[in-house]
Design brief:
With 345 residues, the chain is of the alpha+beta class. The protein has one domain: putative capsid protein of prophage fold (Super Roll). 24% of the residues lie in helices and 27% in strands. The chain contains eight helices and 19 strands. The protein has helices spanning 7-14, 23-28, 89-92, 107-140, 180-195, 206-213, 218-221, 284-287, and strands spanning 35-36, 42-47, 71-76, 84-87, 142-147, 150-156, 164-166, 201-204, 222-223, 246-251, 254-258, 262-264, 270-272, 278-282, 289-293, 309-316, 319-326, 329-333, 339-343. The chain has a seven-stranded mixed β-sheet, sandwiched between helices. It holds the Pfam family Phage_cap_E. It comes from Sphingomonas dokdonensis. This is Phage major capsid protein E.
Length: 345
């Protein structure tokens, strides 16, 4: 009888698997410690900024008590992600790609390698979903959760409405008299004023970058040297690889990137993570994106808080072996106002 993998074995296998790419998730959600909840719902506190100054009073007058600005607790039960594969014995009974002609591995060895292939595929799909959510949140300040047998829900993180813009008519990039460089400089100041932290990254899709690059003012301010930078190379990406962010230079301490990654949606269509003519301004340190995960309500998982839980089992009639990975993620920006998104045309 074939042995099943224990959940601890599968977790040990999936954790070291490295998925390349996912620029926004790694830029915006890699510094904060992930939070795991032992309940199906995820809770977070929204603390309101207090920019009030202390009032002057006479030294002989009593001080007046301040009114506490307080905080607001939000709660949401995220949808589950459940990539599932049937372990097909006809696949590991044949030679694997790269294996010597005639075969040099046992069936058990090929099954172990196939299990790694399945788990890597699961992790890649889970992290691509994280990237899609990260892109939607940084563009809109909210994320829509929708799926089969899951009612559509919108999680709004309360970003200031002025930080989502669409340029119209004669103010659009590419129109006569419009300076994209001047616009970006103004947006950097706008984010810094609202959130109290200086943005450090501007991210373009290829069409918005083409219009930005065409501004004659760019040559005066852009630094094209790599120098000491947290560029895509430092972030672990391969320059020129499909979907990888391309470091274009910096203006002062602000780094400029072009990001053209795509993903395959559940309906099979290919979509861009950043729509055409998108510009994103962000201060990752102030944004403080935090990955959070709801508990996995599975008896074999012990109802624990974990980013993902994998298991496999055998059906007897008809006979089939299955491997499943479950996750209940919700990326949360602690300061959504540390980001701005503009559709420039």
């Amino acid at each position: 009888m074939i042995d099943l993998y224990a959940p601890t074995e599968l977790i040990a296998m999936i954790e070291p698997l490295r998925v390349p790419g996912n620029f926004l998730r790694r830029l915006l959600y890699s510094t904060a410690t992930p939070i795991y909840f032992d309940t199906p719902d995820i809770k977070w506190d929204r603390v309101f900024d207090d920019l009030r100054i202390a009032p002057f009073v006479s030294p002989y007058a009593p001080g007046k008590p301040r009114q506490d600005r307080g905080f607001q607790t939000e709660s949401f039960t995220p949808g589950y992600l459940k990539p599932l594969d049937r372990v097909d014995p006809t696949k590991f009974s044949k030679r694997r790609p790269g294996e010597a002609i005639g075969g040099e591995l046992s069936l058990a060895d090929r099954r172990d390698l196939m299990m790694l292939d399945y788990l890597l595929g699961h992790k890649r799909q889970l992290e691509r979903r994280d990237e899609v959510m990260a892109a939607e949140i940084v563009r809109t300040g909210r994320v829509t959760i929708a799926g089969e047998d899951y009612p559509t829900a919108v999680v709004d993180f309360g970003r200031d409405a002025s930080l989502t813009k669409a340029l119209l008519n004669t103010s659009r990039w590419g129109e006569s008299g419009v300076s994209p460089v001047a616009d970006v400089a103004a947006w950097l100041d706008e984010v810094a004023t609202i959130v109290g932290a200086a943005p450090s990254h501007v991210i373009f899709d290829r069409k918005s970058w083409a219009l930005f690059q065409a501004d004659n003012n760019l040559d005066r301010v852009i630094d094209l040297t790599m120098g000491q930078t947290n560029s895509s190379v430092m972030l672990g990406f391969t320059p020129g690889a499909p979907g990888a962010p391309v470091f274009k230079g910096r203006i002062g301490t602000v780094e400029l990137y072009v990001y053209n990654d795509t993903y395959e949606d559940v309906d099979g269509s290919i979509k861009a993570l950043l729509p055409d003519f998108t510009v994103i301004v962000v201060a990752p340190g102030a944004y403080e994106g935090t990955p959070t995960y709801g508990a996995i309500l599975d008896p074999r998982a012990g109802y624990i808080a974990t980013p993902w839980f994998s298991k496999n089992w055998i059906d007897e009639n008809p006979p089939a072996e299955w491997v499943l990975t479950q996750s209940a993620p919700l990326p949360i920006p602690k300061r959504p106002n540390a980001s701005l998104c503009v559709t420039v045309r």
